[in-house]
User: Fold these one by one.
Assistant:
Number 1:
Amino acid sequence: MKAPDDQPTIGLLLCKEKNRLVAEYALRGVAKPVGVAEYQLLRQIPESLETKLPSIDQIEAELRPDVRDV
């Protein structure tokens, strides 16, 4: 969830496999610098991040503010 003092939103391109053609097509026309990195999926959220991330309930409430608890 973005706070008023957060920097501009960035886009993420996640690829299951390394495929230069798909990445070049997806980024065609992008004039801003692009960073490239690898990532590793984890089954559990690291403890250091657990308190910094919103809960599922918070995310759902943000996405559907008109829906009340049933």
Note: The chain has a mean pLDDT of 79.
Number 2:
Amino acid sequence: MSADSQLIREWIDKADHDLGSAKLIFLHIPEYFDTIAFHCQQATEKYLKASLVYYGIDFQRTHNLVYLLDLLSQKIALSEDIYDQAILLNGFSVQIRYPNKNVYLTKEELELSINIAQEFRNLALQMIGIKE
């Protein structure tokens, strides 16, 4: 396995942990909406970073999903819908973890966030060529 392949796998594994955490928390303590939303954003960020590594695109340390998509769009065509989904999750990055940034989400909004993160997972695995 090449160094890049190993790094891609590590990004995917970390992203899967975030997405799995979001799903488990949603099932067992859905009132932790900020934590669920944060993990959805984090998972999406890591799936995008795995894709960037796959395409050999350097990126800065950031939580900005739109920036990561802009970089990725240099190699593949991305829909406006993908950007809209990223913009939704962008608001759930690190800032949501602090007391002065309270965000309250409904069950439907949390389900949407989880579904978006899952879609980004599917997209990343498809781009990278990982079959399950």
Note: Helices lie at 3-28, 33-54, 65-72, 80-90, 107-128.
